[in-house]
Protein: Ribulose-phosphate 3-epimerase
Amino acid sequence: MEISPSILSADFGNLLSDIQKVETEKPEYLHIDIMDGHFVPNITIGPLVLNALKGKTEIPFDVHLMIEEPDKYIKEFVDAGAKNITVHQEACVHLDRTLQLIKSMGINASVALNPATSLDTLRYVLSSVDMVLIMTVNPGFGGQVFINGMYEKIRELASIRNERGLNFKIEVDGGINIDNIKDVVLAGADVIVAGSFIFANGDPGENLKKLREAALK
Structure:
C-alpha cells in the first residue's frame, strides 16, 4: 500500500514546509490536483507552482488533471516535473490518444473515474494505463465524506484486473482517514490519496504516519 498526500488541503502560504513535513515519512507520491473551474467547480493551481516546487522535494509528482481539454496542457506539466499524469475519462474525447500522448513523454499515464461513471468505460484502455483512480467523492473540493458505494466499485475493478492478468495500480481519492483506510485497502486499493486527514489539523508527517499504521493493523 502506497500513500499520495494531496496538497489540495495543505497550507498554501507554507506549501513547501508542509511538503517537507510529509517527506520525513517517505510517501510514495505527492498528489497535485489541477482544477480549471469548468470540469469541476473549483480553481486550484497550474504548472507555475509545480515548477516552483521542482527540485525542492524528492517525492514524485502525481498530477491529477481535473480539467477540460487536458491534451493542451500535458507537455507543460511534464516539463514542470510530473512523473504520473491522471486524466479523467469524462474529460477526454479520445481517451486512448490522450493516454498515448502522456506515455510518449516518458512518464506514467493514468485515468480517473468520477463516482457515477461506470468501469465499463475503461474496458478497452485498461491494458494501456499505469493506474486507475477511483474517485470516492465528487471531485472539486477537499474535506468531503467517502461515498460508501465505492467499495463495490474498487472490488469490481480489482476483480477485473485479476481476471485479465493486468498490473495497473488502483488509486483511491476522497474522504479517506484512519477509520476507513483499512477497508479501502482490503477492497483492493494500492495507492491512497489523502488530503484533509494529513494536512488539515496537526503535524502532516505525524498524520501520514498514523494513516499508514491504520492501514496495516
